[in-house]
Amino acid sequence: NRLHATDVTSSSFRLAWPKLLSQESGYYSLEYRPAGEPGGRRTLQVSGAHTSLVLSGLAPETTYEVALVPESNVHYFPPQTTRVTTLAEEISPVQVLISESGPRSFQVSWAPVLDSVASYQVLYGPLPGNSARLLEVDGRHNSTVVEHLAPNTTYLVTVTAIYRSGKEKSLSAKACTQEGERGE
Questions:
Q1: DSSP type of residue 40
Q2: Strands 154-163 and 52-55, sheet pairing
Q3: What pTM did the predictor assign?
Q4: CA angle, corner 35, sides to 44 and 18, nearest 5?
Q5: Chain centre to alpha carbon of residue 28
């Protein structure tokens, strides 16, 4: 039952602490800074009625040292401290490559592959048209082969990264299948 962080993202976290003060008995002084950067310290005053606060606008993949100082006019409370590390920034796929295109299939690959991605969804459908199909790909893989396509057709391919945090980021590319053999 002490100062701790929840809801950590790449740019924010929520701090929660036990109720030590009331509105009447004082306020909290909250100090936070990136570890190892004494100059980066920021201080906030928080009403004694509060037991949580969201800090935002933070740098990704950074450890913050946080100190909560109860400024009471009744009792002395020792400062509570904690360290919180923000998550890596969630990057959308920056490249979608189409290769090994044939009349009935092509390969879709993407980069970068990130630990924070749980799975990828590959949505593909002919242009123009609205008959898209969906493939689910494990987050450890960075390519898949799309099959059973129509020859000489342009497809819109959208790769969506589904992050463990629940967020989604997408990137699209166009792919053309080859002309089929005569007599197909």
A1: G
A2: unpaired
A3: 0.55
A4: 45
A5: 31
CB 60 within 8 A of CB 86: yes
Kindly state the tokens that stand for 78: 């020792």
- Which pair of structure tokens corresponds to residue 37? 């950067």
Q: What is the pLDDT of residues 91-127, one digit of tens each?
A: 777 789 999 999 999 999 998 887 778 999 999 999 9
Same fold for the domain at 4-85 and the one at 95-177?
yes
Distances in Å between the Cα of 140 and the Cα atoms of 23, 134, 136, 144 are 51, 18, 12, 12
- Rounded CA separation 177/24 (Å): 72
Right CATH for 4-85 from 2.40.10.240, 2.40.30.20, 3.40.50.150, 2.60.40.10: 2.60.40.10
Judging by beta carbons within 10 Å of its beta carbon (0-12, 13-18, 19+), is residue 115 exposed, middle or buried?
exposed
What one-letter code names the amino acid at 5? Answer: A
* Residue listed under structure tokens 């960075």: 142
CB 17 within 8 A of CB 50: no
Render pLDDT for 153-184 as a digit per residue (tens, 0 to 9).
Answer: 999 999 999 988 788 889 999 999 999 765 44
